Amino acid sequence: MTDxxxxxxxxxxxxxGSPKGALHDARPVDLVVHLLQALExxxxxxxxxxxxxxxxxxQVDGQGANLARxxxxxxxxxxxxxxxxxxxASGLDAIALASARVRAGDAALVIAGGVESVSRVPMFSDxxxxxxxxxxxxxxxxxxxxxxxxxxxxDYADRSRTKARAAPRPPSLVTTHGLDHDQFLDGAPDRAxxxxxxxxxxxxxxxxxxxxxxxxxxxxLRHLHTKGNSPQLADxxxxxxxxxxxxxxxxxxxxxxxxxxxxxxxxxPVIMLTGGQLAAERALARAGLVANDIAVFEFxxxxxxxxxxxMRAFDVDHERLNPNGGTIALGHAFxxxxxxxxxxxxxxxxxxxxxxxxxxxxxxxxxxxxxxxxRLLAAA
Length: 380
What we know:
The chain is of the alpha/beta class. It has two domains: 145 residues, Thiolase/Chalcone synthase (Peroxisomal Thiolase, Chain A, domain 1, 3-Layer(aba) Sandwich), CATH 3.40.47.10; 198 residues, Thiolase/Chalcone synthase (Peroxisomal Thiolase, Chain A, domain 1). It has twelve helices and ten strands.
């Protein structure tokens, strides 16, 4: 098999996922078109592209009708397109599918990533048969099982925001519709404000009953997750160009990173949010690596309790986990999040001159995806 390498990547800022968000007026397809054009401006030749794969979790209305193909057409690219749905892991999985095609020799250059406009296409608006408990109740179950306290969850959330405020501007960030930064940092709550937020998920009695049926020894659920220590809903898009080395040379673009291994998995849909952690374990095993080999873990912050569990499982500190802040601080754009995390890994490995990173996401219904990435480009 040939190597699958990342030769370019771009993302939009994350806008608040509400009608007052900075990207609310941008159609999801417009975000993808904007990024396709940005990749072209960075040397990716549309004539060399063999497919566009875009992850999206809520494929209805403005995110329906095979958004990937429509975006390619509107960008003026004569390229096929396909839209992928693995819930919150969709963007990362689209990149994994692209890398599999490249490694197999089925394609030399594929554009892959994800998009989500929660402000225009709200969560659950597809009215699909998603017969699981709410993700926030699952997070409260993890907090209960792990005996977390509210202060620990709020401390983690505050640390995520602190890192985000101090982070350098990523080279992959492209100004979009007048927004040049991740909007959730504007007016973000401080540590004192976090302590005042009430729990969000204590009134979901039917979900709590299902939790007790599946985990009778857990005891009474402790509802500890609030809007301050939960992921913020966002609008965003992100794309990467995945190629073989011959194509990279042909386009005179550097092979920035190699996709070493990927994994997808499914866990119990009641506890649900452990899927990304399990996928990371499997991807590391496939790569022949251990957690200590990894300089940067980008783990979607699907509620603070899952992050604390992840840190214990891999013995990883804040310097290696989401070093520039995560989705609690910066926003979760469902289908786009995994692609943003993969780009974060590449950018941060290059900044540090480090070798290996991992991107991983937990999704609804117990899904999880992960990717091990190796930096190839010499440090600046």
